[in-house]
Amino acid sequence: MAIINWGIIGCGDVTEIKSGPAFNKVPNSSLVAVMRRNAGKAKDYAQRHQVPRWYDDAGKLINDPDVNAVYIATPPSSHADYAIAALRAGKHVYVEKPMALDYPSAKKMADEAAKKNSKLVVAHYRREWPLFKTIKKLIEENAIGETRFVRLILTKPLLTESELAGEKTAWRVNPAISGGGLFHDLAPHQLDIMYHFFGPALKITGIATNQAGSYAADDMVAGNILFANGIVFSGNWCFNAPGSIDRCEIFGENGTISFSFFGSTDVEFCINDKTTTLHFDPLQHVQQPMIGKVVQYFSGEAENPCSGEEGVELMGWLDAFVKS
Fold first, then answer.
1. Rounded distance between C-alpha atoms, residue 175 and residue 173, angstroms
2. I need a labelling partner for 288 at 20 to 30 A (CA). Which of 26, 124, 272, 278 fits?
3. Whether the predicted pLDDT of 324 surpasses 90
4. What's the CATH architecture for 130-282?
């Protein structure tokens, strides 16, 4: 198997633990270059993570002859431009979620990959977690009988003034950079798993509003999905709540499966009023299982774990929830 030599565009906080170290930990993979517009921070990252080269210009990283795969970890507003440039340079691309600023931008990325016959993967990395692979297996085996509906709720308190003043948070609630608010930051993880579990949607309806008016983005989203297989999904995302709730429940004809996306790593499996708790250890690098699959795909040893076309579909869902 060929070695996949990675370059990271946007070596910020998300790459410190969640993803960056994993590129040197999975087989046949090596992190050889990083880029950040702040040269001092790029150099510091490279030195701390023992990365051979660093850049403050994305074009230079993309055209580095030793880099054959690019991981794009910048805010969504720049995903399309960087991805298209890398694809045109003949590089494989692994891009953070949400895939792009909106559906049209995501479509341009997928179309470019198809045009160049290049490989594009979207970082919906929960697909490869043992926790979600187990839930998917339970659903496919009809462990709770035929699935009827799914109920999801995610609430968080309003961001504080100090959080809004911080660079790490402010861009996430600026629609021009993130595509929306915290819904666009967090819901892609959840909705992609729904797509991964239940397939294409037949109908999507949504309501989005800015109740608190603390920033430009919507802080309340609610919506429903009718899947093509007849399963119904209902979700509520409130980012101006008094406390935090993170719960998803899958209801079948004989039982339920309950879990969270961002908190506990336990899954409650209830059948005939008997509840079993399945425990999963937290992952040190949450993207490592997915990166392993991406390396296999780029090397021609596996199927695409999350294609550009699937990413485009999900961007359509996000748009439908907030623009209905």
1. 6
2. 278
3. no
4. 2-Layer Sandwich (3.30)
